[in-house]
Every structure is written in structure tokens, then in C-alpha cells.
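Milestone M4 deliverable, item 7.
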Amino acid sequence: MAEAKFLSVKEAMQKGSGEVSIRGWVYRERGSNKLRFIVLRDSTGILQCVIEKDKVGEEKFEEAKKLQVETSLTLKGTIKKDERAPSGFEVSVSEFEVIGWSDTFPITKDQSAEFLADNRHLWLRSRKMTSIMKIRSTVFGAIHEYFRNHGFLEFHSPIFQGTQSEGGSTVFEVDYFGKKVYLAQTWQLPAEAGIFALEKIYTIAPSFRAEKSKTSRHLTEYWHAEMEMAWASFKDIQDHGEGLLKHIVKKVLENNVEDLEILKREPGKLKPTLEKPFVRLSYDEALKILKEKAKMEIPWGKDLRTLEEDKLSSLYDMPVIVYNYPKEVKAFYMKENPDNPKTVFGCDFIAPEGYGELIGGSEREPDIEEIKKRLRAQGEDPDEYGFYLDTRKYGSVPHGGFGLGVERVVSWICGLDSIKDSIPFPRTMLRYNP
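Output delivered:
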């Protein structure tokens, strides 16, 4: 095929008429002894292309008859509107060239979830996964944009960490040249050191949780968007969490409506998040609402489980912020509430539609002795946290931050049945390959 400027499928359809050159992979193929209908896909969409024996000649038509799903090719032809075609346009092909032949593609309709997981490297080519990955990319871009627009600087902390952050039962231990270290559960402890230089910082990085869970909500490796901020009040943390989620949804609705349509996700379900202020409930208020509206009696002091979070989320059409949790169920670094020392200035953002916690955040505890006491209560040696305690010794200021689970957000926005589809190659208790 002669040298040509290739258009994407979307660009070709936007042009709408005239001669076009496109390239991609065979998404569907069918035909007769005189016509071959090829639905070509690229990252932007699908487009029906018709190869006629009379136009390309007998030799090329015989080649066209051998085309299988996922064969890559370039082609040139004339595009026009055709309401009968899958995307409303059709290309009459004048010439084509096979770039890479395909064997019989193993993925067909109605494959099991396990088969698709085993062949994830190929299932990524599906329109469903392509749309999810596009939305995921928008989400990442929106996170960077929000924080940078609000004066935050990107800051990185180590993946190998000498101390635990979120509890010993969920850490991955690693042999580090004969010494025991842990894969990061969060960047938070090193980040708290960073704010005394940079004041407002954020990151998006992998985090690792050795949770022995096989649910549709858990991954052992996930992407964590985190922020830490000097001079911050508890309200500042909640405001930024709400602002970030609104910005993410705004960018997806601006850029990915077609992808939501492919996923059969109604954009209207996301609009309340954009248009309404988030409901903010104290832990005590949440327990009262669950008792009154869901007939759920929860003893004070218990953390909210998935069951309670789902019931609470069903009462609202936007994320709900629950704050002032009991101290005993939250991390050692959360600030004690001076008005009720049994609680802390910690909050969770619970997604609508039963998608669970999206964000966990808090104002940080300033008192060194209180931190040491809580560490001992968790079976930790405060001496192992010397660098962290130093942040309270040399000019500490009110500060706080939060962590957002990117895959949880992608799952909610896309309306996915399983969090495993929100990341290209999910890692779980049972799966580390491909």
C-alpha cells in the first residue's frame, strides 16, 4: 500500500466522507465469495470496511478471505455514512495490506471469568477493557491536574519500608539483603516528613496489602493517590477529598461518555456527585441513621463493615463522608478528638451504589507520647519509628492527609462488578500471572 497519512477510526468517522487511510486489527469478519465485511478496531473505535472482489482483484480477495480476528492491517478506501453499519459509517476498500497474521483467537463470546483472567493479556483488546483503561487514564490525569492546580507538589516515598504503617496483619514482608522490610502500604509516614519542606504534596504510587480476601473489592497491589498538607484542619482534608472526587467525575463526563456507553454505564448516575454537596455524617449520626432507616443495631465502637457501608451508601446518590470514628478502630497516627477523646479526627468517603470506601483520611496526631502509647498498644516498638517521631519534635504544625484507592474509584465510575477489571493486570491472593 502506498505511503499515506493514517487517520484513527474516530478521525475517519469525523471526516465522514471521501478517501481515508486507516489501520488497526480485525474485530469481526464475515462475507461471501464476492464481499468481505471487516469490522476494524483501533484504540478509538470500530469501523466497518467492505472488501469487494471486483475492486481489489482476485488475488487480494483470496487474501481477504483468510483474514481472522486480530489480524492487523492497513487499508485505504472511501468512507460514507451507513446506518446499518455498527458505528454508522462504512469504508469501501480500494486496497489493503496485512501487517500481521493472526492465529485463531482464543477469546470468543461467553467465556468464563477465569478463562478471561488467564488470558488477560489478550482480553485487554476487548472493547470493554479498552473503555475501562481509557477511563482509568482520565482518572489518573484528573488526579494530577487537581493537585497541581491546588498548589501541591508531586513527592515520592520508598516502596521498601522499614516500618509498618497500617497494621502487621496485612503487610508483605520482604527479605532485603538479610533484613526484614515491608512493601509499602502507604507513603504516609515518609510523606509527613516531606511536608515540613514542601508543605503541600501528593503522589500516585502502588501500595501493597496482604489481605487474605477473595472478594470483588480487594487487590493485593493497587494504585494509591495520596496527599499530605501542612497547616491543615480536619475540614481541609474533607474538602480536598470532595473536591478531588468531583474533579475526577467532571473530567470523565467531559472525555469518556462514549466509553461509559460501551460499558452500559448511565452517566446520569454520576451527575449527583458533581452537582450536590457530599453528605457529611459523624460516626454517631451514621449509627443512628442505620438503626432508624435500615434496622441495623451496631454497638458503639465497632468499625463499619462492608454490610453497613453498603446499606448507608444505598441511602444517597453521591459519596458520603463519615467522620469522628472510634479511636480503637483507626490507625495510631490519627488525631484524638479533644471534644471526645474516645474518637479521632478520621474520615472515610463511602461510594454510592455499594462500591465501598474510596478515601480514608485524617488530621494527624501531634502528641509524641500519645503516638508512642498507641504504637505500644498495637504491639509496635516506638524506637522503630524514630524518624517519624522526629517530625513532632522539630517545629510540628497541624497537618493531615488522605489516601484514595484509584481502582475503587474506577470501579465505581465504570459500574464494574469486580475491582479486578479496573486495572490491566490484577493481583490477588490467587493470581500473580499474567
